[in-house]
Structure formats: structure tokens, C-alpha cells
Design brief:
With about 230 residues, this protein is α+β, with helices and mostly antiparallel strands. The protein folds into two domains: about 70 residues, Glutaredoxin; about 150 residues, Glutathione S-transferase Yfyf (Class Pi), Chain A, domain 2 (Up-down Bundle), CATH 1.20.1050. It has a four-stranded mixed beta sheet with strand order 2-1-3-4, covered by helices on one side. The radius of gyration is 17 Å and the shape is globular. It starts with a strand and ends with a helix.
Amino acid sequence: MLRLYQFERTWGIPNLSHFCCKIETYLRMAGIEYEIKPTLPLTAPKGKLPYIEDDDTKLGDSQFIIQHLKTNYNNLDEGLNKAELALSLAMQRLLEEHLYWVSMYSRWLYTDTNWQINKKAIFGVMPPVIRDIVAAYFRNKIKKQIYGHGIGRHDTEEIFKLGMLDIDALSSCLGNKKYFLGEQPTTLDASAFGILISTIGCPIESPLKEYGLSKDNLTNFVAHIKTHFFSDL
């Protein structure tokens, strides 16, 4: 059986990781059997979670994992035309290459309260003697990544304004539809759920979260997927 390596569940959501949540959502939407192996990314391929093991295949990075799932199990995007596939790719880039980093800024750098909540969720399983050292190391690493991405070069108000533009675009794209591309879930929905629930559905407070919660269609979308595909939570 396919094994999914991800963080321990916490906060009452599928996973504290945007991308772990994305992969597990795709697995459930596609009806693929799997088992969860809770872990930290210390020895993960490419140094991050999630990753999967499927027979002799070991894969990291959500994009390559989903490509594997599409090829070997169930392709949720099989019915999309070229224009829809292009829109799906573009919106996933918005979610995963931009809004994700605003969300990460909220967790790791925005306020000390947010950092302590995030720190406890990720590193709380570690022995106290090394927990603070490891957490500080990763916080500094994430800070450099956020700066290297470019979003960390702006001031706080500018960062959240850019994130709010992403929220507006997502809300407009979804409209009054059940899913982003119609009546059936696709990869875009798994991606959107992973990023959105990790932004508006967890105990990390920020102007971005408040703005996201003001969009009824996005909050309804998140609630529907959580209820329909994660009823066990």
C-alpha cells in the first residue's frame, strides 16, 4: 500500500503543512488507498514533506507525487480541456508559489504568538533539550527562504496586501461553483484546499486570515471539502 509521510495531525485540520494537506486531499478525492507515516522532514527526499513510498518508488515534492498518482492510479484532471488545464496550472502557481509564502510569513515571522503556536505544532514532539535549537535553526532557514523568494523584502502591510490580491483572484475564479473547474474535484481543488485551510482554518491569526474569512465562497469551499472528504476529522 502507498505510504504518505507527513507531519502529525494537529489543529483539527488534515495537516499543518499546506502540501501534505494537498497530497492527502488528492488521495481522498481520487479514491486511492494509503497509509500515513507521521514524521519530520529531517531525512526526507529533498529535505521536505510530504513524500511517498509506493513499492520501490520514493518521491518528494507534491508536483511529482501528483504526477505519479495521475499516471499510476487516478487522474482527476482527465476530463479537462487544454484551456482548463492551463487555468489549473496558473492558479496552482498563484497558490503554491505566492499565497503560500504569505501564509508562511504569517506563521514563522509575523508575530511571536503565531511563531510559538507554529513551533509547538511542528517541534513539540522533540525532547526539550534540543527542541529550541532545532526550531531556531529552521526558523532562520525559513526566514532566508521567504526573503529569497522576494516576498520577505516587503514590509508587513505590503506582504498582506499582495496576499489579499491572491484571495480576491481565487474568490473570483471560484465564483458560485462547487469546485474551481466545475462539478467534479480536480488537482486545483486539492491545491486550493491545502493552501486555504492552512491559511484560514488554523489558529494562526493575521490580516490575511481575516480577509480570507470574509470571502463566503472560499470558506464554504473549505468547509465542503473538509466535511465531504475528511469526515473522520
